[in-house]
Fold this protein.
Amino acid sequence: QSALTQPASVSGSPGQSITISCTGTRSDVGSYNFVSWYQQHPGKAPKLMIYEVTKRPSGVSNRFSGSKSGNTASLTISGLQAEDEADYFCCSFAGGFAGSFTEYVFGTGTKVTVL
Amino acid sequence: QVQLVQSGAEVKKPGASVKVSCKASGYSLSGYYMHWVRQAPGQGLEWMGTIDPSGDGTTYAQKFQDRVTVTRDTSKSTVYVELSSLRSEDTAVYYCVREEAPAAKYFGYWGQGTLVTVTS
């Protein structure tokens, strides 16, 4: 199972909106609405930001939103703030296919820079 | 509240094995899947495997199939991951991770991470 493909970096000015893509295959993103997104600040453990493609956990700002089309999921951050500068990883459930040992696959990661 | 507290950093030689522990508190191990995810320095996250709520079933990523074992001790509320035949590429931070809710396919709780360094 190959890692999901994300852009290495995305940047934006405070107040702007940015979108991070996460491209998989029919075996993972394309087959399941179990895409989640994680934010990771340097030296810290990842934090859940979006689950099941579009849902936000309690306590996560509504500036974060998710979507999916075909084999590609996306995370949008609107009203970009300095505290949003971090690494972001997508993740998809990938189990259930014959011959597939891997149950979850993560994205390659995107560094978000607030200019 | 849910807490996952992992064992301390390890330094191992190539070919050796390492066993990392994760003590859970604030909930019962019997109710949730526990996963292990690792992150090499400056790299992305990599799912390694999971143990089911009963403790009887494990699933591993094909990449680690022959080298990884996930176990648990319910009496100690602790889950373990053991990785054998270590090589330099196994140098990484290892995280224990719990699903947010029973049967949820996303990760709501993370341990603090354990750095495993493989060096001769």
In short: Chain A has no helices and nine strands. The mean pLDDT of chain A is 93.
